[in-house]
Amino acid sequence: MGTLIGAFFAFTILLSISGLKLDREYQRGVIFRLGRTSGTRGPGLYWILPIIDQKTQIDIRTKTVNIEPQETITADSVTIKVNAVLYYRILDPAKAINKVENYQLAVYQIALTTLRNVVGQNILDDVLQNRDKINIKVQEIVDEITEAWGVVIERVEMKDVEIPASMQRAMAKEAEAIREKRARIIKASAEQEASIKLAEASQLIMNNPAAMELRRLQMLTEIGAENNTTTLVMIPSDFMNLARNLSDSIKDKEQGK
Question: Any transmembrane segments, and where (predicted)?
Fold first, then answer.
């Protein structure tokens, strides 16, 4: 009789110990009592009713999902491949267990289809230049769907956009043409400004002949700065006019004689 009582107490103690559960800081336990949700426990050490209660453990840390490259057609009929990375975490472990069969697969599939649909609504230039807007749009749509599952989408980032080789060559030619056009416009604008400045300078020199002599002296200084043996002697225009007039007067006198 004593042996049976001892065995009963030992079994009771072992059964009670089996009800002790331990969850780490990033874990939660969803408790089912006779098949019905009894609540969420953890982290730390806690006790559940053996046999009657069952626990499903959930990791609430942020999870990273790599979305494989997807082939899609943009709004301007260009076939491209895009891939992305998704960050999510569980806010309500009970919903993640009860509302969807496999929340990890469900989140991945909804992110996959949403990325393809959102990219297909934009033209190629927007996909390449406005990735942030596409990321935010995908995040909002996926987060709205997964909210009922107790899952929050923290971030969506497009990693790479693969463009066909023929389209890459066309885009390179377009970019080169745009740069050449910009260079020609800048050059023409500079020549226009230079012509305006030259016209203003000519007016100033015409009104003040001494300015022409100063410009000649400056030219001599610039030439002398170079390492060369060339020597230039510049005679003021007034001297040239005076010499010409003097020469003409001498010729007239000789002809008069």
Answer: none
The residues, any chain, with a CB within 8 Å of residue 32's CB and separated by 6 or more, are 38, 53, 54, 55, 56
Query: Could you give phi then psi for residue 151, rounded to 5 degrees?
Result: -115, 135
Cβ proximity of 162 and 82 under 8 Å: yes
Q: Could you tell me the sign of the dihedral formed by the alpha carbons of 64, 65, 71, 72, in that order?
A: negative
* Rounded Cα–Cα distance for residues 224 and 98 (Å): 91
Distance CA(51)–CA(172), nearest Å, equals: 69
Query: Which are the contacts of 235, defined by CB distance < 8 A and separation ≥ 6?
Result: none
Write out the two tokens for 139.
Answer: 């995040």
Q: Phi, psi (5° rounding) for residue 45?
A: -95, 130
Instruction: Name the nearest CA neighbour of 122 among 170, 169, 156, 77.
Output: 77
| Spatial separation of the C-alpha atoms in residues 141 and 62, rounded to whole Å | 19
* CA pair distance 184, 131, nearest whole angstrom: 32
The two tokens of residue 255 are: 């002809």
> Using DSSP, how many helices (H) and how many strands (E) does the chain show?
8, 8
